[in-house]
Amino acid sequence: MVLLVALQIIVVSSFQPIVARTCTDESVTVVISKLGSVHLRVEVSITALESNVVLLFSNGTQKEVPAFSLYTFSVIMPRSGFYLGSYGFQSEGITLSDNQPVDVEFLSNCTLTQTPYSNMDWLGQDYPRVSVYCFTVTGSAMVSVEGMSAVF
Q: How is residue 139 annotated by DSSP?
């Protein structure tokens, strides 16, 4: 019985909710990052307020959201490895450690090309324990990132 309760506590504590929101009038770059030992799934909601909003993704894709409309999409970042020991990483818009394996940051008045990890090649080679997904929202909008991570 004690083993079953201990196992339930471990399973429940390995899931962490993610809730991050912001409102922007000009542009904001959304940076979602995680350690490699974490599986992450979030829903991103963009609500265009008074005018059309443009989303720019790191692969060059653009999406226009009409005024007063809601646009949602999922971001799934699977676990990419298992690492023993402690690990930490900090850069502009990213703060990760064993105690904070997932981070969502909003960089105000910053475009995707101004972020150092908009080109993910350097990150994958030098920091294989970190995964990053980022995009820019231009215009007046409410941005919400909500989901769940599982730490392994």
A: S
Query: pLDDT tens across 4-43, in order?
Result: 333 343 443 467 899 999 999 888 999 998 888 889 999 9
Residue 102: name the closest of 126, 130, 75 by CA: 130
Tokens at 64, concatenated? 């226009």
Nearest to 40 by CA among 79, 90, 87: 79
* Global pTM value: 0.80
28 token code pair:
């904001």
Break the chain down into helix, strand, coil percent, rounded to 5.
Answer: 15, 55, 30
What is the reported pLDDT for 121?
44
Q: Is residue 55 within 8 Å of 141, Cβ to Cβ?
A: no
In order of 81, 82, 86, 117, 130, the CA distances from 125 in angstroms are 15, 17, 20, 12, 10
